[in-house]
Amino acid sequence: MSNRAAIDATVPTTRSEAGAAHIIVRNLTMAYGSFVLMRDINFTVRHGDVFIIMGGSGCGKSTLLRHLIGLKEPATGEIIYGEVNFTRADPQTRENMLRRFGILYQSGALWSSMTLAQNVGLPLGEFTDLTPSQIREIAALKLALVGLSGFEDFFPSEISGGMQKRAGLARAMALDPEILFFDEPSAGLDPISSSLLDDLILQLRDSLGATVVVVTHELASIFAIGNNCVFLDADSRTQIASGDPKDLLANSRDPRVRKFLTRGREGSEELGHHE
Predict the structure, then answer these.
(1) 35 backbone dihedrals φ, ψ, rounded to 5°
(2) Residue 237: CB partners within 8 Å, gap ≥ 6?
(3) Is 58 helix (H, G, I), strand (E, B) or coil?
(4) Considering the entire predicted model, what is its pTM?
(5) Which residue, 1, 11, 56, 229, has most beta carbons within 10 Å?
(6) Fold held by 20-100+177-186+205-263
(7) End-to-end CA distance of the chain, in Å?
(8) Residue whose C-alpha is closest to residue 225's, from 195, 180, 252, 250
(9) How confident is the model at residue 4, as a pLDDT?
(10) What is the mean pLDDT of residues 245-267?
């Protein structure tokens, strides 16, 4: 059962052909008061990309994600989704656009007092007119898509950290989003669980036809799922690279980029598998 028809028909659509621009960030400056965290950020995310926001600690990766989803306003610059200027949009348009976003926070951010099915059904109850039985059915379907069939009535405390991340992903998919945003999805997971989550992200990107934006510093994930990226540098307070991470590894001559993508281990055959 699709819940797309139940969502407000006034939401501006940004779906398009794969490879077309889906998100454009133009001349973005991120600041806290007078302190400029990052300036002159420019990049394009194409439809169907798995776009990686990467860089060292303190460079503003999660802050950039908060700008993209409207939790923080740019000091200057703009963010455009398809043909809609998100930065300049009126509150109602922005609220409607947000219904097309699915967000997985670092902790999973599940409500501990709710079952997994109730957590997944929460946005459906808030933004659609579906009946409780229909919401339950869709929640069960989303949980099944992430390998949690049969866990509908479990509470978050009763499942593992990796399962909590997958449940959070199921909730992020509840409204059939056009864009999925992930903030450090592999944080706290063992390498096997992290690899399985990477595989799941790619499968869901393909099945949903969604664009995926991921904040991560995990090399294994960067190279396994990313086909486009922006690299933020804390020292220069701007981006110093963009493009396919594999191309940057092979061709970038910037020592800061190479050091990050090799963790200082030039020539290692195990890039990304040692954290």
Answers:
(1) -85, 115
(2) 36, 37, 38, 39
(3) coil
(4) 0.84
(5) 229
(6) Rossmann fold (3.40.50)
(7) 40
(8) 195
(9) 45
(10) 86
10, amino acid identity = T
Distance between CA atoms of residues 141 and 133, nearest Å: 12
Domain positions in the chain are 20-100+177-186+205-263, 107-176
- Residue 229: phi, psi to the nearest 5? -165, 165
Of the pLDDT bands very low, low, confident and very high (cuts 50, 70, 90), residue 266 is: low
Q: Give the number of other Cβ atoms within 10 Å of residue 98's Cβ.
A: 16
Retrieve residue 183's tokens. Answer: 């903030």
Q: What are phi and psi of 82, to 5 degrees?
A: 60, -115
Angle of helix 116-127 relative to helix 161-172, nearest 10 degrees, comes to: 20
The whole-number pLDDT of residue 270 equals 43
* DSSP-derived 3-state class of residue 202: helix
Taking a C-beta distance cutoff of 8 angstroms, is the pair 191, 273 a contact?
A: yes
Q: Tokens for 40, please give them.
A: 């002159």
Q: Cα(50)–Cα(227) distance, rounded to whole angstroms?
A: 6
What's the rounded Cα separation, in Å, for the pair 244 and 236?
A: 21
